[in-house]
Amino acid sequence: MALSVDPSDPECVAQVTVYQYGQGGAVVGSWLATSIRVRVQNNSDVVLRRVMAYITKIERLMPNAAWEETSSPDTQLIWVGDTPEVEIPASSAKYVNLLHIDQKDNRLGVWQRQLPSSLEDFLRYGGRYRFTVLVLAQDVSIQMRILVDWQGQWDKLEVFSEP
Q: How many separate domains does the chain show?
């Protein structure tokens, strides 16, 4: 299994439309958002079952060049397709939603997850953030760190994978 975030991959940094639904399921509003996703590649010749992903650490770069870590608990991520776990066929890939920045709210968040208020405050301002992502499947686990340089606007950010 391999993890990657490639800013040139339109699935890793995607501009998406978010819909607001009213009574009876009718669309009553819509706006744009930026979704940052991690590509999870199954490099084996067997199906990976019950694959789950978590943010295990969130850090913010401080003016003194030190990383400040939140005390937030692990956050389970949702896969593209809105499920908490997936199956990844042999030699194929799936994407898991890492961050979501709505044009309407203009703040860093996690797709379909209510964040604790302390974490919302931690992510409130533009700056450089580091997210450690852990992906688990059967007897396999892998993690990577992803840097997000967010300039305080829903569509103004850069994403890097940390070596």
A: 1
